[in-house]
Amino acid sequence: MAHVLTGSPLIWLAWYLQKSIAQQSQIRQEYNHKQRVMTMYEGFVKAIDESGSKAHKEELLSIMLKTVQSNPADILNGHDTLIDSIASKASKIPSLFKENISEESKKDV
């Protein structure tokens, strides 16, 4: 019993830390992407200014605005950690046993 009492908080702590690290990594990747888009945008604007095409500049601006306006927190929705996926699969185990038992009882009849 003592093992369960000490192990439960450690499992929760491991799950929480894994989820936190994964979220921080995803947000960091999203902001790095935005930074690269802005850097590319600046380079494209210079090239378009030299060529003088206003239509290309407006199209580039609309693409850049769509990228920059996206909220980095949106990418975090729906991403599970390893522990979350194991727990969801483990929760399906009782229903599998019930299905097997009901199939076996039908065969016996």
Structural class by SSE content: mainly alpha
The low-confidence runs, each spanning 5 or more residues with pLDDT under 50, are none
In percent, how helical is the residue content?
over 70%
The run of helices and strands is: HHHH
| Percent range for β-strand residues | under 5%
Q: Provide the domain count.
A: 2
Number of helices: 4
Distance between the termini: 42 Å
Identify the overall geometry.
elongated
The profile of the biggest β sheet is: none
Number of strands: 0
State the oligomer.
single chain
Radius of gyration: 26 Å
Provide mean pLDDT, rounded.
Answer: 76
Describe this structure as you would to a colleague.
The chain has helices at 2-51, 54-69, 82-91, 93-108. It is mainly α and 109 residues long. Helix 1 runs antiparallel to helix 2. It folds into 2 domains: 2-78; 80-109. The protein contains 4 helices and no strands.
Defining traits:
single chain; 109 residues; mainly alpha; 84% helix; elongated
